[in-house]
Amino acid sequence: MSLPDPAAGASTAPAGGEDRILTAANLVTAVRLGCIPVFCWLLFGAGRQTAAAILLGVLGATDWVDGQLARRLHQVSTVGKVLDPTADRLLVGTAVVSVIVHGAVPLWFGLLTVAREALVSAMTVVLAALGSRRIDVLWIGKAGTFGLMVSYPGFLISHGTAGWQEPFHVVAWVAGGAGLALAWVAAAAYVAPARKALAEGRRARREGGGGTTIGGPLAPGRGVGA
Protein backbone atom coordinates (compact mmCIF):
# COMPACT_ATOMS: atom_id res chain seq x y z
CA MET A 1 0.00 0.00 0.00
CA SER A 2 0.82 3.02 -0.92
CA LEU A 3 1.79 6.07 1.44
CA PRO A 4 3.20 9.90 0.80
CA ASP A 5 6.95 10.58 1.01
CA PRO A 6 7.98 13.64 3.04
CA ALA A 7 11.42 13.74 1.47
CA ALA A 8 9.79 14.41 -1.89
CA GLY A 9 8.46 17.73 -0.70
CA ALA A 10 11.99 19.05 -0.50
CA SER A 11 12.18 19.22 -4.30
CA THR A 12 11.73 22.61 -5.83
CA ALA A 13 10.27 23.57 -9.16
CA PRO A 14 11.52 26.46 -11.27
CA ALA A 15 10.40 29.86 -10.02
CA GLY A 16 6.77 30.52 -10.75
CA GLY A 17 6.19 26.94 -11.90
CA GLU A 18 4.38 25.48 -8.92
CA ASP A 19 1.02 26.83 -10.07
CA ARG A 20 1.02 24.48 -13.06
CA ILE A 21 -1.73 21.89 -13.37
CA LEU A 22 -1.11 20.07 -16.66
CA THR A 23 2.08 18.15 -15.96
CA ALA A 24 3.14 14.58 -16.67
CA ALA A 25 3.36 13.88 -12.95
CA ASN A 26 -0.17 15.13 -12.28
CA LEU A 27 -1.46 13.13 -15.26
CA VAL A 28 -0.04 9.92 -13.78
CA THR A 29 -1.57 10.74 -10.41
CA ALA A 30 -4.94 11.46 -12.04
CA VAL A 31 -4.83 8.12 -13.89
CA ARG A 32 -4.05 6.26 -10.66
CA LEU A 33 -6.91 8.11 -8.96
CA GLY A 34 -9.24 7.21 -11.80
CA CYS A 35 -8.33 3.53 -11.47
CA ILE A 36 -9.78 3.33 -7.96
CA PRO A 37 -13.43 3.04 -9.11
CA VAL A 38 -12.26 0.61 -11.81
CA PHE A 39 -10.76 -1.58 -9.08
CA CYS A 40 -14.03 -1.48 -7.12
CA TRP A 41 -16.05 -2.34 -10.22
CA LEU A 42 -13.79 -5.26 -11.10
CA LEU A 43 -14.01 -6.66 -7.58
CA PHE A 44 -17.67 -6.06 -6.71
CA GLY A 45 -19.39 -5.31 -10.01
CA ALA A 46 -17.80 -7.69 -12.50
CA GLY A 47 -16.71 -10.23 -9.92
CA ARG A 48 -13.24 -10.43 -11.48
CA GLN A 49 -11.17 -10.95 -8.36
CA THR A 50 -7.90 -11.81 -10.13
CA ALA A 51 -8.09 -8.79 -12.42
CA ALA A 52 -8.84 -6.54 -9.45
CA ALA A 53 -5.85 -7.97 -7.57
CA ILE A 54 -3.54 -7.40 -10.53
CA LEU A 55 -4.74 -3.81 -10.92
CA LEU A 56 -4.23 -3.20 -7.20
CA GLY A 57 -0.71 -4.59 -7.43
CA VAL A 58 0.10 -2.36 -10.41
CA LEU A 59 -1.26 0.73 -8.64
CA GLY A 60 0.85 -0.02 -5.60
CA ALA A 61 3.98 -0.80 -7.60
CA THR A 62 3.70 2.44 -9.62
CA ASP A 63 3.19 4.69 -6.60
CA TRP A 64 6.70 6.11 -7.04
CA VAL A 65 6.29 7.01 -10.74
CA ASP A 66 4.54 10.36 -10.35
CA GLY A 67 7.00 11.45 -7.68
CA GLN A 68 10.00 10.57 -9.84
CA LEU A 69 8.50 12.44 -12.79
CA ALA A 70 7.81 15.50 -10.66
CA ARG A 71 11.39 15.63 -9.41
CA ARG A 72 13.26 14.65 -12.56
CA LEU A 73 11.21 16.87 -14.87
CA HIS A 74 11.08 19.71 -12.32
CA GLN A 75 7.29 19.53 -12.32
CA VAL A 76 6.62 19.83 -8.59
CA SER A 77 3.36 21.76 -8.34
CA THR A 78 0.92 22.94 -5.71
CA VAL A 79 -1.83 20.82 -7.27
CA GLY A 80 0.44 17.79 -7.25
CA LYS A 81 1.30 18.24 -3.60
CA VAL A 82 -2.41 17.94 -2.80
CA LEU A 83 -3.49 15.49 -5.50
CA ASP A 84 -0.80 12.85 -4.94
CA PRO A 85 -1.29 12.26 -1.18
CA THR A 86 -5.06 12.41 -1.73
CA ALA A 87 -4.82 9.66 -4.35
CA ASP A 88 -2.58 7.61 -2.07
CA ARG A 89 -4.92 7.92 0.89
CA LEU A 90 -7.96 7.04 -1.21
CA LEU A 91 -6.15 4.07 -2.75
CA VAL A 92 -4.98 2.72 0.59
CA GLY A 93 -8.35 3.22 2.26
CA THR A 94 -10.34 1.78 -0.62
CA ALA A 95 -8.02 -1.20 -1.07
CA VAL A 96 -7.93 -2.19 2.60
CA VAL A 97 -11.67 -1.77 3.17
CA SER A 98 -12.56 -3.53 -0.10
CA VAL A 99 -10.33 -6.52 0.61
CA ILE A 100 -11.80 -6.75 4.14
CA VAL A 101 -15.38 -6.59 2.82
CA HIS A 102 -14.54 -9.18 0.17
CA GLY A 103 -13.39 -11.46 2.97
CA ALA A 104 -9.92 -12.01 1.52
CA VAL A 105 -8.04 -10.81 4.61
CA PRO A 106 -8.65 -11.54 8.30
CA LEU A 107 -10.59 -8.75 9.98
CA TRP A 108 -7.96 -8.24 12.69
CA PHE A 109 -5.22 -7.80 10.09
CA GLY A 110 -7.25 -5.25 8.17
CA LEU A 111 -8.19 -3.32 11.31
CA LEU A 112 -4.57 -3.16 12.45
CA THR A 113 -3.63 -1.76 9.05
CA VAL A 114 -6.40 0.84 9.15
CA ALA A 115 -5.56 1.80 12.75
CA ARG A 116 -1.91 2.35 11.88
CA GLU A 117 -2.83 4.54 8.91
CA ALA A 118 -5.26 6.55 11.01
CA LEU A 119 -2.71 7.02 13.79
CA VAL A 120 0.09 8.24 11.54
CA SER A 121 -2.28 10.44 9.52
CA ALA A 122 -3.50 12.06 12.74
CA MET A 123 0.11 12.56 13.83
CA THR A 124 0.85 14.28 10.53
CA VAL A 125 -2.08 16.66 10.86
CA VAL A 126 -1.22 17.54 14.45
CA LEU A 127 2.45 18.16 13.68
CA ALA A 128 1.56 20.27 10.66
CA ALA A 129 -0.87 22.35 12.71
CA LEU A 130 1.74 22.89 15.41
CA GLY A 131 4.38 24.05 12.93
CA SER A 132 6.76 21.11 12.96
CA ARG A 133 9.60 20.96 10.46
CA ARG A 134 9.75 18.06 8.03
CA ILE A 135 10.80 14.63 9.31
CA ASP A 136 12.93 12.33 7.19
CA VAL A 137 11.44 8.99 6.20
CA LEU A 138 12.85 5.98 8.06
CA TRP A 139 13.88 2.96 6.03
CA ILE A 140 11.88 0.72 8.35
CA GLY A 141 8.73 2.62 7.42
CA LYS A 142 9.42 2.21 3.72
CA ALA A 143 10.02 -1.50 4.24
CA GLY A 144 6.74 -1.85 6.11
CA THR A 145 4.84 -0.02 3.39
CA PHE A 146 6.37 -2.23 0.71
CA GLY A 147 5.38 -5.35 2.61
CA LEU A 148 1.77 -4.20 2.86
CA MET A 149 1.76 -3.18 -0.79
CA VAL A 150 2.65 -6.78 -1.65
CA SER A 151 0.36 -8.45 0.87
CA TYR A 152 -3.05 -6.97 -0.01
CA PRO A 153 -2.99 -7.87 -3.71
CA GLY A 154 -1.59 -11.23 -2.60
CA PHE A 155 -4.45 -11.84 -0.17
CA LEU A 156 -6.94 -10.87 -2.83
CA ILE A 157 -5.55 -12.99 -5.66
CA SER A 158 -5.18 -16.00 -3.31
CA HIS A 159 -8.75 -15.85 -2.00
CA GLY A 160 -10.14 -19.17 -3.14
CA THR A 161 -9.48 -22.91 -3.17
CA ALA A 162 -7.55 -23.37 -6.41
CA GLY A 163 -4.14 -24.99 -6.04
CA TRP A 164 -2.34 -22.20 -7.92
CA GLN A 165 -3.56 -19.67 -5.33
CA GLU A 166 -1.74 -21.22 -2.38
CA PRO A 167 1.73 -19.78 -3.17
CA PHE A 168 0.22 -16.29 -3.36
CA HIS A 169 -1.40 -16.86 0.03
CA VAL A 170 1.93 -17.80 1.57
CA VAL A 171 3.64 -14.74 0.05
CA ALA A 172 0.82 -12.51 1.28
CA TRP A 173 1.20 -13.72 4.87
CA VAL A 174 5.00 -13.49 4.86
CA ALA A 175 5.04 -10.00 3.32
CA GLY A 176 1.99 -8.84 5.27
CA GLY A 177 3.18 -10.09 8.64
CA ALA A 178 6.58 -8.48 8.23
CA GLY A 179 5.12 -5.33 6.69
CA LEU A 180 2.53 -4.79 9.41
CA ALA A 181 5.07 -5.36 12.17
CA LEU A 182 7.57 -2.96 10.59
CA ALA A 183 4.84 -0.38 9.97
CA TRP A 184 3.91 -0.29 13.66
CA VAL A 185 7.55 -0.25 14.75
CA ALA A 186 8.11 2.68 12.39
CA ALA A 187 5.12 4.54 13.85
CA ALA A 188 6.63 4.20 17.32
CA ALA A 189 10.09 5.11 16.04
CA TYR A 190 8.81 8.45 14.73
CA VAL A 191 7.83 9.68 18.20
CA ALA A 192 11.30 10.91 19.19
CA PRO A 193 12.08 12.57 15.81
CA ALA A 194 8.61 14.15 15.85
CA ARG A 195 9.19 15.76 19.23
CA LYS A 196 12.56 17.10 18.07
CA ALA A 197 11.13 18.37 14.78
CA LEU A 198 8.30 20.09 16.61
CA ALA A 199 10.69 21.85 18.97
CA GLU A 200 12.94 22.96 16.11
CA GLY A 201 10.01 24.12 14.02
CA ARG A 202 8.62 26.22 16.84
CA ARG A 203 12.02 27.69 17.57
CA ALA A 204 12.47 28.64 13.91
CA ARG A 205 9.10 30.38 13.90
CA ARG A 206 9.92 32.29 17.07
CA GLU A 207 13.19 33.43 15.58
CA GLY A 208 11.37 34.70 12.50
CA GLY A 209 12.80 32.12 10.12
CA GLY A 210 9.43 31.86 8.39
CA GLY A 211 10.59 28.82 6.46
CA THR A 212 9.15 26.13 8.64
CA THR A 213 8.26 23.15 6.53
CA ILE A 214 4.95 21.60 7.37
CA GLY A 215 5.22 17.89 7.74
CA GLY A 216 5.64 14.79 9.77
CA PRO A 217 6.46 11.16 9.14
CA LEU A 218 3.81 11.08 6.45
CA ALA A 219 3.98 14.66 5.23
CA PRO A 220 2.25 15.41 1.91
CA GLY A 221 4.55 14.80 -1.01
CA ARG A 222 5.16 12.43 -3.90
CA GLY A 223 6.33 8.87 -3.72
CA VAL A 224 6.16 5.97 -1.33
CA GLY A 225 6.08 7.07 2.27
CA ALA A 226 6.39 5.45 5.64
Write up this protein.
With 226 residues, this protein is an all-alpha fold. It folds into 2 domains: 19-102, no CATH class; 106-203, no CATH class. 67% of the residues lie in helices and 0% in strands. It has 8 helices and no strands. It has helices at 24-45, 49-61, 65-72, 78-102, 107-130, 139-157, 166-189, 191-206. α4 runs antiparallel to α5 (107-130). It is globular, with a radius of gyration of 18 Å.
Secondary structure elements and their pairing?
Elements: H1 24-45, H2 49-61, H3 65-72, H4 78-102, H5 107-130, H6 139-157, H7 166-189, H8 191-206
Low-confidence stretches: 1-16, 210-225
**Number of separate helices:** 8
Class from helix and strand fractions: mainly alpha
Mean pLDDT: 79
Largest sheet: none
> Rg from C-alpha positions?
18 Å
Q: Tally the beta strands.
A: 0
Shape: globular
The portion of residues forming beta strands comes to under 5%
Give the helices and strands as they follow along the chain: HHHHHHHH
Helix percent reads 55-70%
Please give the alpha-carbon distance between the first and last residues. Answer: 10 Å
Count of individual domains: 2
